[in-house]
Input
Amino acid sequence: MARAAARGFSVTRPFGDSASYDVGVEHNGKFSRVQVKSTTFQRHGSYTCNLVSKVGVHYERSKVDFFAVYLVPIDLWYIVPFAVAERNQSLNLAQYDGHKFAQYIEAWHLLEG
Output
């Protein structure tokens, strides 16, 4: 939330467990529902992040617009559109050019609309 706010986004958090997303991000009238994930699990040079809300339960397109995935050991964020991650139970993310998801590294601009 702090990283998004520092970039000029208005950030809201749903009260309690009343929504299916973690954070709402607004920029110039566009509101995005963001599910925040983090990982420390590294294997073969990439970090694995699970994209399920409960064991085996996938997020729904109608309830989440983006995943904000934080790679804790290297202080790096991925902003991944739901449509890109939709068919995955997990993402393998790495910090190098040419990686499958490299275009989403610190891609805060995607939340601008």
